[in-house]
Write a structure and sequence with these properties.
There is one protein chain. The chain is α/β, with parallel strands linked by helices. The protein is built from nine helices and ten strands. A seven-stranded mixed beta sheet has the order 3-2-1-7-8-10-9. A three-stranded mixed beta sheet has the order 4-6-5. Helix 3 links the parallel strand 1 and strand 2. Helix 2 crosses helix 3.
Length: 256
């Protein structure tokens, strides 16, 4: 088989997969398991490459992110913060096998110390201190608010010293996944941000929460201003009706 025939066969196979996917609603793609195929593997590798010793996991939900790091060989410490009661209960169970994984006291992280009312969604991954837009709920009923919970709130600069005593020698990944509340977390953590080696942050391209103040360009400006270089981006949330990407995850590191 010559090169032209191989190319034509490859293109025919790709078109067949597209047509099957369109008609069945199933998308199957077999790829080698490499950092280009797995955002979770890529993140764990970059943590190792940059010498991360501590992950400050804000908006942990049920622990998906931290567990994936440990699955891919991370051996450092993780401190997870999760305010929603049901999610935090699952988080505690999930963390039990990992001695370096600490679940912080139940609280939200924001711009100031006090209390915050959390809007808890049917699927807790959508829970936020901000109300979710009706336009989004209309085509994703799992995101609808089913109750509210009032919880203590802290600036991360206030509470983190309880969990990292030797922060001077720590190499911290500051991970923020707070459903539109990222600006408030950053405002409460100038010291933590200044010490951080890495920043992993959810970036709204199209905000699905009311009063979201940090958007794509704001976060790019923040990262550049504080000396972070972009290392990885990952598509997180997509509008299934239009194809528009709502959110991406950005991973940035300072270069020594």
């Amino acid at each position: 088989m010559n090169l032209l025939q191989q190319i034509l066969q490859s293109k025919a196979l790709e078109r067949t997969k597209r047509l099957v996917g369109k008609s069945s609603g199933l998308y199957l793609k077999l790829k080698r398991f490499t950092p280009s195929a797995s955002e979770e593997l890529r993140t764990a590798m970059l943590c190792k490459h940059t010498g991360i010793t501590h992950v400050v996991d804000i908006g942990a939900n049920t622990g998906q992110f931290a567990e994936s790091l440990y699955d891919f060989g991370f051996s450092g410490k993780v401190i997870s913060f999760e305010p929603v009661a049901a999610a935090r209960a699952e988080l505690e169970k999930r963390s039990a096998p990992y001695p370096n994984w600490t679940i912080a006291e139940r609280c939200a992280i924001g711009a100031e110390d006090g209390t915050i009312t959390m809007n808890v969604s049917d699927d807790t991954v959508f829970s936020s201190a901000l109300p979710i837009k009706d336009s989004y709920v209309s085509h994703n009923q799992k995101s609808r608010i089913v109750r509210q919970e009032e919880v203590p709130a802290f600036r991360i600069d206030t509470i983190l010293p309880r969990y990292i005593q030797d922060s001077k020698n720590a190499r911290i990944l500051f991970k923020i996944d707070t459903q539109g509340f990222e600006k408030q977390v950053i405002e409460g953590g100038p010291d933590t941000l200044a010490k951080a080696t890495g920043l992993k942050i959810e970036i709204p391209l199209y905000a699905i929460y009311e009063h979201t103040e940090f958007r794509f360009y704001d976060i790019m400006d923040l990262a550049r201003h504080h000396g972070f270089q972009p290392y990885s981006f990952h598509v997180e949330g997509v509008d299934l009706n239009t194809g528009r990407v709502n959110t991406i995850d950005g991973l940035f590191f300072r270069e020594d």
